[in-house]
Amino acid sequence: MSFETELKLSLSENSVPQLKTHPFWKKFAVEGPKTFHLGNVYYDTADRALNQAKVALRIREKNGVYFQTLKTKGESINGLTRRGEWEWSISGNQLDFSRLSKVWPESLQTISAEQLQPLFATDFDRTLWLVDYNGTKVEAALDQGLVKSGDARSLICELELELIDGDEAVLQQIADELGQDVDLTPSDKSKAERGFELLLMRD
């Protein structure tokens, strides 16, 4: 298991060109930008037991390779989120419950693989920079796309600053520096939470 620590910031589509060309990247980015597509399908039970337990389960496709990810309940304050995360490479677009069973939360032990079903998807392009900010390594990801559930849609336009190694406080420092020129708003809402909101709108 790893622990994910990230700062999520929303922005308008009109601000994207300004963010992408910000001088910050020339000064601190050691890799990138790289842009690629990510398709994600989120799973839960019919009564949404995982969501109630603040657990997210998804299969992600990137360049024809599939990854299964489980994220557990964490805490989120002013856009800064800390939570447990497990990820495995899998052979296709079907859940591998044999791996999940080893790390499955105790509160969800009564749930079987047969009860898990796809409920919604996210579909977006990611532009990625690897940043070294005074010795702290950060992955900066600009995501643009959609959360989709049936005919319902919700726009994705956000910057995620994920701590790779170093001082957590640097995430806010980077946000402050970029925020001098780009309107960035802290967001505590994950893509999975937005997907469940779409489901509620359909119910």
Automatic annotation (TrEMBL):
Q: Which GO terms describe its molecular function?
A: inorganic triphosphate phosphatase activity; metal ion binding
Q: Which Gene3D superfamilies match?
A: Hypothetical Protein Pfu-838710-001
Q: Which InterPro entries match?
A: CYTH-like_dom_sf, CYTH_domain, YgiF
Name all CYTH domain ranges.
Answer: 2-202
Q: What is this protein called?
A: Adenylate cyclase
- Its source organism is Endozoicomonas montiporae CL-33
